[in-house]
Design a protein that fits this description.
Blueprint (H helix, E strand, L loop, with lengths): L6 H40 L10 H27 L8 H24 L3 H25 L7 H27 L6 H33 L8 H13 L2 H5 L5 H26 L2 H7 L2 H23 L3 H9 L1 H26 L8 H29 L8 H24 L2
Helix pairs in contact: 1-2, 1-3, 1-15, 2-3, 2-4, 2-6, 2-13, 3-4, 4-5, 5-6, 6-13, 7-9, 9-11, 11-13, 13-14, 14-15
Length: 419
Amino acid sequence: MIIAMNPNIITTIKTDQMRHSGYRIWFIVSMFDLFAAAIIGVLLRAMYFVEVPFVTFRPWLHGHSHTALLGWLFIGTVVCLLHDGGLGRFTPRMRWLLIGLQAAVVCMLIGFPLWSYNVITITGSSIHMVLAFMALATLWHVSRSWPKQGSGMLTRAAVVMFILSTLGVLAIGPIIATGNQGKEIYYWAVQFFLHFQFNGWFWFAAMALGARWAERQGFALQIDRLTMGLWIVSAVLTYALAIAWSEPLPAVFATVAVAVALQVWAAWRTFGILRRMHNVAYERIPRAARILIGVALVSMAMKVLVQASVAIPSVAIMALTIRHFVMGFVHMNTLGVMTMLLCSYAILSGWFDLKRGSIRWGLGFLVAGIITSELLLFVQGSFFWIGLGMIPGHYVHLFAASLLMPMGVVLLLIGSLKK
């Protein structure tokens, strides 16, 4: 018997397959960026106790940070938000945007270690920024149909914060042209970009991911205007922390105190919202994803508490001048919060099949590497603070903990690429 299929049905099936697999493929691509950033991170850790002839620290650090921030975290976050639990459409326009974004990331990944800042890396960064605006315009358009007091509002706030952060990057050119490179205003511009990336774009995007998942489960997540306003105002005012290290004026610390008070208030109100959906989340989220989300929530709470503590001038100076604390805080945001949330999204979307041993072991190595390295950074920073000096073998231990992360990512990639 020969059965003839309607060509329109075949086209529909292919379109649905592309819609469901397109974002998954690009999530896996962004994980290769995570792997590259993790490998460079391990090399940089090794430089503290062995000589690595072909690695110059600062240029490779730029390659590490740009690949992690603009590759894994930006592309991964946009992909997860646009995927929308399988409801999002993967269009040819989005495919080309993602190809362009990834090409720009590869340019920075290769260019920074070889040439540091030059015409190639600056061009790659500029292209990434333009294409990022285009991708975020699509996200803005899509989120207009999402609940206004939930994921829609959070997503649009995240987009605005990303755009705001780029003002810091755009200011660097004129600052250098006027001979102010290396001065306070130059570092303020760099910190402006980083602050509104971590405390704005990624922070609100993280909340948007959680809110959108809750809405798809039928949970009416309502974020009132006061709570939202507290988060936005505190995100803006906590930029004063970046100024406090060079201008420890009473007015600056007063601004920090107000900012962290508003942030703690916002966190308390948000906790009340999350507590109401605890039972729903526990029933519908697999245990592995609950662990990752738990790590992310603890990291978010720690971030709020750390920023609250630096309202005390002596603590602020200590936190901003001890490099271990700075690194620990940055990785708390990038690894502890965003990486954990993106991986939990991959589990909930079926991109990570927990039946596969490589996925389970990969997640285990990744989580163990993140938690262990964070503990080592903050413990060593505390030793410096109280005057106990270096812990014997600290950098070897930090290297070993960091090595767990690329090992975990490799296993996740193996498990994800298996058919």
